[in-house]
Request: fold
Amino acid sequence: MLKKLVISLILVAFVTVLCLPNMIYAMDDIIGAGGNFIGKANETVIDETELSTTSNYIYNILFTIAVVLAIAIGMVIGIQFIMGSVDDKAKIKETLVPYIIGVFIVFASFTIWKIVITIGNDVTEAEESMPTYGIIDVNKLTNEQLKSEWNKNDITKSIGELYSSGLTLEQAINALDDYERAIYNTCKNRGLLDELGIVLK
Reply:
């Protein structure tokens, strides 16, 4: 009887599974969802100034709380030591060791935190004030400066060599390095190139 019941239950379960609708997820939906996820990640920008301000704010609050607690607990222990009996004073001396160790750990942690914040701010400021050594934002250049950069980097010659090697003009332009390509595109957008798009006007 028990065997028949078990077999019946297995058969019912098997038939139920077969009758359930199959869920098929389209590959396009999966790829689209992945692309959206990556896109959102690229949109996320960390504001270092705001992060530093928030960190300093939290640091100041927690440091103030730590100082107040350390002083308050120290005062309580001191009052108990003064007012207590000989046995109480012996017990209070035993509690002094964990108190001192705790205060040391807490303030050492705050010191390390402050050092890390200071070093991080110094590094950020140094990076911001560091000269670019030739890497220039071409969009900020005047037309004359742009032409000077074009000639300095000899972009006409570079495009000509790439073009003569069998590449199309578009492929030759794409084969330039990032800085040269930025100069080329900016000159083209400002109408500084000839009709062929290789030589300055």
Residues 86-129 form the longest helix (44 residues). The chain has eight helices and no strands. The radius of gyration is 36 Å. Residues 22-28, 129-134 have pLDDT under 50 and may be disordered.
